[in-house]
Amino acid sequence: MRPELPGLEVVLLEEGENYVQLIGKQGPIWREHFRLQEPQNAAVGRFKPGSDEVFIWCRSRYNTHQKPFVFNSDGKTAFDYQMDDVAPEGWTDSGVEVIHTIDWTGRPEQLACAKERHTEGDVCLFEPLSGKFVERFKHKTDRLYVADVTGDWREEIIVLEGNKLHVHQNPATNARPDHKRLWTDRNYRRLKQCHNYYSP
Fold first, then answer.
1. Distance from first CA to last CA of the chain, Å, rounded?
2. Nearest-CA neighbor of 41 among 159, 165, 154, 198?
3. What pTM did the predictor assign?
4. CA distances from 182 to 60, 151, 168, 186, 189 (A)
5. Number of Cβ atoms within 10 Å of the Cβ of 15
6. Are 130 and 81 in contact (CB under 8 A)?
7. What is the rounded average pLDDT of the residues 151-180?
8. 190 φ, ψ (degrees, to nearest 5)
9. How high is the pLDDT of residue 200?
10. Where along the chain do its domains lie?
């Protein structure tokens, strides 16, 4: 998130205390909150077109009518909105869950991928900074994964639905076909080995 600082950085979500914290090799970098809303889940990525800045998208815990908020790399609130205002018609009012950052387009900016919350429902791609839904995939999703499985370095959406496995690939031409596969990155391999609800 902060390329001027040495080493790996970790984002902590403090449920109960309701803070988001960024920690680096030499200790805490910043600790902030957004109206003391609980940051239950997060997606971290380069979400702004034309920028290398990394943002932290957080999902509030509300059982319905989620209110996501986004911090920039300095810990300042950059965006906030209500999921009800951006979700497509028919999407559950419980919002989203199992949120992944995804390299879908082949461009430097990333999207988020998630499923309907508290139901075996659809999967979506959305822009974390605005909440705009980019694409919706009709499913009765049991599990959702994101990984580069076809070899063009972009990531695919992997949906387990009952005893069927569905893989969605971006049909558009890859904007950067010579980019190295994500699996060559040690941190990427570790992330994909340590998948669970809180650490996609």
1. 18
2. 198
3. 0.93
4. 30, 9, 17, 9, 8
5. 12
6. yes
7. 95
8. -65, -40
9. 44
10. 10-193
Question: Rounded CA gap, 27 and 19, in Å?
Answer: 16
Residue for token pair 């190295």: 180
67 Cβ contact list (under 8 Å, min separation 6): 37, 60, 80, 81, 82, 83
Residue 21, beta-bridge partner list:
12, 31
Could you tell me if residue 65 is left (phi over 0), alpha (psi between -120 and 50 degrees) or otherwise beta? left
Residue type, 74: D
pLDDT in tens, 3-51: 888 888 999 999 999 999 999 999 999 999 999 999 999 999 999 999 9
Amino acid at 156: E
Nearest to 100 by CA among 59, 61, 66, 53: 59
Mean pLDDT of all residues in 48-58: 96
Q: What is the side-by-side order of every strand in the sheet holding 19-24?
A: 10-14, 19-24, 27-32
Contact at 8 Å (CB) between 108 and 157?
no
Residue whose tokens read 């972009």: 154
Tell me whether residue 95 is exposed, middle or buried, using C-beta atoms within 10 angstroms of its C-beta: 0 to 12, 13 to 18, 19 or more. Answer: buried
Residue 197 has pLDDT above 60, yes or no: no
